Amino acid sequence: MNHPRRTGVVFLMVLLSVMTYLDRIIISIAGPGIMKDFNIPEIQMGAVYSAYFLSYTIMMIPGGNFADVFGPRKALAAMAFGSALLTGLTTLGGAPGLGTYIGIVPSFLVVRLAMGICAAPMYPAAGRMNANWNPPSARARIWGWIACGAGIGGACTPLLFSWMRANYTWRGSFYAAALASALLGAVWYWYVRDYPREEMPSHGAKSRAPTPWKELLTNRDLMLLTAGYFTVNYFEYIFFFWLYYYFGQIRKMGMDQSAIYTTLMWIAWIVMTPIGGWISDRFIIRFGMRKGRRIVPVVGLTVSAILVYIGCNVTGTLPTVVLLCLSLGVAASTDGPYWAAAIDASGQHSGTGGAIFNTGGNLGGMLAPALTPFIARWAGWSAGLYAGGAVALIGVAVWFFVGVEPAVRASAAQEPVA
Predict the structure, then answer these.
(1) pLDDT mean across residues, the chain
(2) Is 294 in contact with 404 (CB distance < 8 Å)?
(3) Measured between alpha carbons, how far is 186 from 179 in angstroms, rounded to an integer?
(4) What CA–CA distance (Å, rounded) separates 279 from 137?
(5) Are residues 67 and 168 in the same domain?
(6) What pLDDT is attached to residue 412?
(7) Cys-Cys link to 308, which of 69, 256, 389, 393 (CB 3.0-4.6 A)?
(8) Predicted local confidence at residue 417, as pLDDT
(9) Domain boundary among 158, 191, 224
(10) Do the Cβ atoms of 301 and 228 come closer than 8 Å?
């Protein structure tokens, strides 16, 4: 039976996902102005950008464990309020401000490192909330909407904050983002509970149970899914970091046109993530959990690899743009099934299990931007994109071995109270 607050809980998780991406990438929109104001070289600004992802990845597993121990409601509220605080404090990174005392670049580095720590629980905690509120047959489509929120944030941030920067300076745009994050965090904490019926004693016991680290790290399904998600993120992050460059500099489409075409990439993401999740949930109802869950990832990643190959070899602008954006969109459709399967494999520890899983994905995302131009330097940009497609096909293979091991079981401390 559908709980009256379920839709509201999902809607707020989607908004948190949007806001997380706004807070994450607003620095890249403000970057040119910050570099000009404080004479920051490109390499040092690149380090500022990377600081967030470094601490975000390192703290992912502790953040997920925080959600298991204290509950996803508190974890996501802490994430929202912490992100709001650090987004606001970014305005003090220059001079006058924190930069006066420790240096301009170190001050921005400190703030961005702290912000990555605050943001780390976002998706593991959302995974735990998804598990708490939704049956297995609904988890992929719910995650599809959460992932859609990330795409909305990625698509809207450049347009929204470019306008805000022009009208209210880069500092004003950070203050606005901070205020929005704080308000959303307050609404989340007021409206949401960890479970549909949180007063049940067993729910409180679950959140305080010790984490079975060995069982999680040796669970075959969870480790296979983590390896598979590494390949998916490797493939996707090539598009996030290099598609604009590829369109403009390699295919000579012009930088203004390339910006429009790159926005289409995010639109493909927004459209396909909910669709992929919905289809996956329908398939598990029809074909069973093991067979049904693997269909979308196996077909989707195979099609994505094929579309990359074709897209790199057609000559017209429109076919190239459509094929490559569709390739990313089809790959994005696998996000819901991947996360739903990881939640299922993690059992009652889906916060920590989801964090382990997402850490693997982030490692793939960190590797792709650096390795792709290296491959392109020696074998051409088409080879760099082909390599991404080949990696994605490895992600296809893991699904034929997933689904043979039971989920991580609840410990004795987690058994429902009679």
Answers:
(1) 87
(2) no
(3) 11
(4) 11
(5) yes
(6) 36
(7) 389
(8) 28
(9) 191
(10) no
Nearest-angstrom CA–CA distance, 184 and 182: 5
Same domain, residue pair 168 and 300:
no
Mention every residue, 6+ apart, whose C-beta is less than 8 A from residue 407. 219, 221, 344, 345, 346, 347
Mean local confidence (pLDDT), 290-318: 93
CA–CA dist 57, 19 (Å, integer) = 18
Domain that holds residue 137: 6-191
Count the neighbouring beta carbons within 10 Å of the beta carbon of residue 163: 12
Neighbours of 409 (CB within 10 A): 12
**Ramachandran assignment for 215, one of left (phi > 0), alpha (psi -120 to 50 degrees), beta (any other):** alpha
29-33, 94-98, 208-212, 282-286: least confidently modelled range: 94-98
Q: Flag whether pLDDT at 288 surpasses 50.
A: yes
How many residues would you count in the chain? 418
Total domains, the chain: 2
Residues 222 and 178 in one domain: no
Query: 235 lies in a domain?
Result: yes
Asked whether the beta carbons of 117 and 55 are under 8 A apart, the reply is: yes
User: What residues contact residue 397 under an 8 Å CB cut-off, 6+ apart?
Assistant: none
Residue 409 lies in a domain: no
* Residue 197 pLDDT greater than 50, yes or no: yes
Q: What CATH code is carried by the domain that includes residue 52?
A: 1.20.1250.20
Return the structure tokens found at 263: 């926005």
pLDDT of residue 37: 83
